[in-house]
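Recall from the previous lesson that a structure prediction takes nothing but the amino acid sequence as input. Here we apply that procedure to alpha-L-fucosidase from Maribellus comscasis. The sequence below is the only information supplied.
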Amino acid sequence: MKSVKSCLKYSWIILLFVIIALCNCQQPVQKQYEPTVSSLDSHPVPEWFNDAKFGIFIHWGVYAVPAFHEWYVEYMSPKSQWGHSPEGPPYTAEQGNLPDSVFRSKIRNGANKYHRGNYGADFEYDEFIPMFKAEKYNPENWAGLFKSAGAQYVVLTAKHGDEFALWPTKYTDRNAMDMGPHRDLAGDLLKEVRSMGMKMGFYHNTTYSFWDKRYPNKEWVDYMNNSIKELVDLYQPDILWGDVPVGPFRNNNGKPLGANHWNSKEVIAYFYNHSENPDQVVTNERWGLDTTASQALSDRSVSNSLWAKQAQRWNTGNGIFLGDFQTPERRNITGIFDSPWETCDALDPTSWGYNKQTPDDAYMTTNELVDYLADIVSKGGNLLINIGPRADGTIPEVMQNRLKGIGLWLSINGEAIYGTRPWKVFGEGPTVSEVGSWGREDGEYGFKSGDVRYTRKGNILFVILLEWPGSEIILKTLQGIDIKNISMLGSDESIRWEQTKDGIDVFLPPNPISLYANVLRFECVNL
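The prediction returns the following tokens.
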């Protein structure tokens, strides 16, 4: 009898192991990405990123104390520990024989004068650290503001060029837990942002530590990459935002320091492989150019990229971009771009970090911000708009007002933004630049009456009137489109229209719904 019971007992144990083994066999094997261009190129861009359209960028750190510019450590007094003399070009210009104008010498010299006048030539950058207290920092309030703005994701500068980390890192004691605020600024914000249903990402400095004596040698590259990997392991960010430009950083022979120098492929593969859901994370393209890969990947070639003009100006040669999406900075593009892209820009035209000298009327207006977003989305991109909080952790009122303003607009018109895709043309009207120009950098900031942008969701075409055209508007591009109904977002009333030889003649209500752009919703047949 005892032997029978023993047999039954062992049978159950064996059966349990079999069940566990079968369950394990049914678990999908997570793909491992290799540090090669071909392997990294197979990483999909998650749909949430293509659908999100609008995010918040935050430049915050010790540089908020002098409150002049985020590159204050690089631009300040020549007698400081890390500053550069205003009479000579910065390190990278010397190495690459590049014009000093590339590095905004006017801003650098202005910061130099500002520092001497307010703090003295002998005042070193790290003396600002005890003054960076973040005593009024409320990450819940920050996240609530971003949510009310309609943002779908947030990117924080976890470590900028001054190499001061906003999390408790083991790789340097120059961090917000050991110095200054004595708090995990990055982790606290991540928790609140995710609790409100938004994605969270981190910017990490990748090439801008000119003051560090180790830079740009292997010792510094290893230190930087270990810091990035730690950030990935601790916080599992949805977005990893690198910042290696395509041209300025060069070796002693004047050759660009590419992706291999920075070990970028290894870092990106680590990010993918150590994320809980590798196919749901995303990284930008600023990791340097890979010049060793096959040029058959023409969609990743710099000559076919949004950086082509800048690469030509900086004489980088050709190469392959890494990452998932491209990031033109403080500029828009002038046509639909098929690959994922995101414009990053700041409400403050002078600085990404908080600049207390910028007057409120110099900031991007809510109307400009709404039009900017609509224009970018009509061309297939996202907008990552930047704010710069103060050193005490408060967000300036002018920045809050701009975010609340676009949030109110999106609460009515978000259907025309989120989850949309470009139509066959991005728009029509007087402000349509020639292909190849750079939009805002070429002086085209405002829009005029008659400027229209299109977005699409299935058989619904959204017609975004950037400026109110008056009692009617003729949409020439829509000639011959089979339309079932036209309405305006924010109103239940149908809009009258006529098909004419010139296009669709739309008769508008006497008054606009929105203070900013107004949106017509076209229900179409087989759009």
